[in-house]
Amino acid sequence: MGADDEKMEAIVAAFRHAWNAYVRDAMGCDEYHPISRTGENLTSSGGIGYTIVDAIDTIYLMGLRSEYEVARRWIETELSFNHSYPEVSTFETTIRVLGGLLSAHYLTSDMLYLNHAEDLGRRIVVAFNTLSGLPHRTVNLGKPHSPQYSYITSLAEAGSLQLEFKYLAELTQNDTFWYKAEHAMSVIRDGLLPNGLAPTRIRIQQGTFQSSVVRLGSLADSYYEYLLKQFLQTKSTERLYQMMYNNATDGIAENLIQQTPEEHITYMAELDPQGRFLNSTPSSWNLGHRQEHLACFLAGSLMLGAVTSGSRNGHRMVSVPPKPHELTPRGLRDWKMGIDFLEGCMSTHDTKTGLAPEVAEFRAVNDANYAYDKDWFIPRTFSGVDRSPYEARYMLRPEIVESIFIAWRLTGDPRYREWAWNIFSSIQQHARIPTGGYGTVSDVNQVPARLLDKQETFFLSETLKYLYLTFCHSDVLPLQGIVFNTEAHPLPIFYPTVVSSNPSHL
Ligand code: DMJ
């Protein structure tokens, strides 16, 4: 499918507007505050490349040569992980920094990135040294062997480090990276609910789940994404992950996916446990009708799963769009569920700014007391110090444009490009700061929008990358050859040589 040069250029211009402001005001800092025009680091002794490493593959893909040189030079001359205080998140550092370095190496073959990735991997991998093998939530990069006291982690934090550590293992031929990350999956697998889903909170040392919500949003999302992508990453042999993925989508289809009674909007509910003790019988869970923006990654993921795991005869890819006879019954179900769910996510863009909120709540079937005129509303339960309800924000998140990008690549249906362009236009209109950078929209239903002082790094690494790729020629990063990590860093699909690709030890 061909490129749309004009739209690509507009998205590149937006990227430069965000990046150049960061370089002007906060070069080298981990995070950027575009209104106060300041930067901030995660450690008191210096940045660990959060923004720069997270953004460099987008810069490279967009062909921004001088920006690329600036970013590479900082990585060459300034980047260090020898910072001790405070500890950084194992998960965020893996998906953003390790993932960014690995994808920069994959795209350019430059050893600078691999050397840093190996150094960082060695500092992070000690987080897996716990009684169960589940990783600690945080790690002290400067003193990686210092004692750790974290008690609880989440499904997402423990179950979405594997794409990065497996590719690092392959590149360095160091199987420790592989086995440590993979072992964490086996601990999770042992505690899954009978419906293939899992609660969000796990005790690190014991490796057992706490009674906690089951959902596709925060604390859980990328675990489900990585089930599919681990199966895809190492070609066809990771059958165990395929099975876990299939069980999970069965669980989603049977327990979580819902439709509103009037407008027939497809949305993803959550299951709330009753009581402190984990009880796996379905009647002991309450259905909640709250959906986070984060959960919308699943729409594209379901479609990708349908044309790979759900294709007949084990074909890796099918026609664009797939023909019904090319998919298994499960593949057909997931394909439809993905398309409908993406449409449901798009309905949450029906706001004054055209941007989707952080949280939407839907009208449940049989809800006689429902008080709103359409089938969803923004719950307003928490106001922070700046008094904006957290649920009403748009934090420059990527999940809906990520799913649109996958839907476009797998269908070629022009409506997906239209949706992507509408979202981009709303971002331009409401989140762009004229003096440079983009801010978090504090309330998607307030015009003119009030902006909060944060340009999230995933705006550069994910949101603008997925928008750009939606308008590129489809030869650029073909879905047959790569998997995107959960921070949109492309990593190649490969045949592992570092270990046996059949995880029989799991
Ligand atoms: C990103 O850091 C990743 O996509 C993560 O998996 C979830 N949240 C943000 C973007 O919303």
Which key phrases capture this entry?
single chain; mainly alpha; 15 helices; binds 1-deoxymannojirimycin
Q: Care to give the gist of this entry?
A:
This protein has helices at residues 5-26, 50-61, 65-77, 90-108, 111-125, 155-159, 162-172, 175-190, 221-233, 239-256, 297-307, 329-347, 399-411, 414-430, 457-471; strands at 31-33, 38-40, 88-89, 138-139, 152-154, 201-203, 208-209, 257-259, 266-268, 270-273, 285-288, 290-292, 359-362, 376-377, 440-441, 451-452, 482-484, 490-492. The chain has 506 residues and is mainly alpha-helical. The longest helix is centred in the first third of the chain and has 22 residues, at 5-26.
Textual characterization of the structure:
- It contains 15 helices and 18 strands.
- By secondary structure, the protein is mainly alpha-helical.
- The chain has helices at 5-26, 50-61, 65-77, 90-108, 111-125, 155-159, 162-172, 175-190, 221-233, 239-256, 297-307, 329-347, 399-411, 414-430, 457-471; strands spanning 31-33, 38-40, 88-89, 138-139, 152-154, 201-203, 208-209, 257-259, 266-268, 270-273, 285-288, 290-292, 359-362, 376-377, 440-441, 451-452, 482-484, 490-492.
- A hairpin with a 4-residue loop joins strand 1 and strand 2 (38-40).
- It is globular and about 60 Å long.
- The longest helix has 22 residues, at 5-26.
- The strands form eight sheets. The chain has a three-stranded antiparallel beta sheet with strand order 5-6-7. A three-stranded antiparallel beta sheet has the order 12-13-14, with no helix packed on it.
- Helices cover 43% and strands 10% of the residues.
- Bound molecules: 1-deoxymannojirimycin.
- 1-deoxymannojirimycin (DMJ) is lined by residues 221-222, 294, 397-399, 458, 462, 486-487.
